[in-house]
Amino acid sequence: MSTAMNFSTKAFQPRPPEKGSFPLDHFGECKAFKEKFMKCLRNNGFDNSMCRLQSKEYLECRMDHQLMSKEPLEKLGFKDLMDPPPSQAEENTKP
Fold first, then answer.
1. Which residues contact 76 (CB under 8 A, 6 or more apart)?
2. Is residue 92 part of a domain?
3. Which long-range contacts (CB under 8 A, 24 or more apart) does 15-23 make?
4. Distance (Å, rounded) from C-alpha 28 to C-alpha 55?
5. Where do the record's region annotations for Disordered lie (predicted)?
6. In CA terms, which of 20, 23, 51, 87 is 20 to 30 Å from 60?
7. Is 82 within the bounds of a domain?
8. Is residue 34 part of a domain?
């Protein structure tokens, strides 16, 4: 005698995660940036705080090639690596 377990007839509808997963770079458009970032990590004992500039460049490449959704870099934690607006840059250089 076999028993069938019918919990629900509603089909599971998977959906992609909002963040944390993005398409593979099948054409290698950002491979150079990825390699530069990985080399930096290896050279710095995998301390990612030492490779923030390389990480920023890699993510910018991915956004430019539609391999991830566009996000403001400030929202990704790179506010301190952003260039100041031109008006502030001029004020900082005046004696």
1. 56, 59
2. no
3. 22/62, 22/67, 22/68, 23/67, 23/68
4. 16
5. 1-20, 72-95
6. 87
7. no
8. yes
- CA angle at residue 55 from 62 to 71, to 5 degrees? 50
**Interval 32-89: pLDDT, tens:** 999 999 999 999 999 999 999 999 999 999 999 989 889 999 998 888 887 666 665 4
Residues 6+ apart with CB under 8 A from 56: 73, 76, 78, 81
Token duo for residue 81: 């690596």
First vs last C-alpha separation in the chain:
90
- Which of 86, 87, 89, 59 minimizes the C-alpha distance to 74? 59
Domain count, the chain: 1
pTM to 2 decimal places: 0.64
Which residues span the domain enclosing 39? 26-70
- Does residue 19 surpass a pLDDT of 80? no
